[in-house]
From TrEMBL:
Family matches, as InterPro entries: UPF0234-like_C, UPF0234_N, YajQ-like_sf, YajQ/Smlt4090-like
Gene Ontology cellular-component terms listed: cytosol
Keyword Nucleotide-binding: yes
HAMAP family: UPF0234
Matching SUPFAM superfamilies: YajQ-like
Record protein name field: Nucleotide-binding protein A3K51_01895
Keywords assigned: Nucleotide-binding
Transmembrane helix recorded as keyword: no
Family statement drawn from the similarity comment of this UniProt entry: Belongs to the YajQ family.
UniProt function note: Nucleotide-binding protein.
Molecular function, one GO term: nucleotide binding
Pfam family membership, one: YajQ
Amino acid sequence: MSSDYSFDLVSEIDLQELTNALDQTRKELAVRYDFRGIPTEIKFDSNSPKGAPSGLVITTADEFKLKAVRDILESKLLRRNLSLKILGVPKNESASGGQIRSTIPLVSGISADKAKVVNKMIRDAFPKSKTQIQGETVRVVSKSIDDLQAIMQLVKSSPIVDFPVQFENYR
């Protein structure tokens, strides 16, 4: 048995669950009385070169309807076990026909700057553990399983970590 235990800290979006949450939101909007006859659209904004969605675009009648759509979407995301941290800061603008369009970027991946901040936070709290930045992944290694679980709780509860996190390859 190995004397070191490890896990990888990553930030990914489960696109299938996101698609399911969007479908559920569309279905709920279709049957809600206050959205009857009001054109509301939620779609992926895929401007990224890889074809993966880079954000969401919501188009609806006014500011109040937009807030209602966001509330419904957030509740569906939570039900599908997706963190609300995947939704970036929305940018609202006027659309044709007096409607309002909100572009919400999707947040995934750990940038080098954020990885350094997380790395420093873990090393300050647990000096015996080792961390390595490997691209968009932070590998955490420790001799104690209890330390790794405490590090997971630290990362989940820290206000410094403003992006969704998952723990993979727990060995």
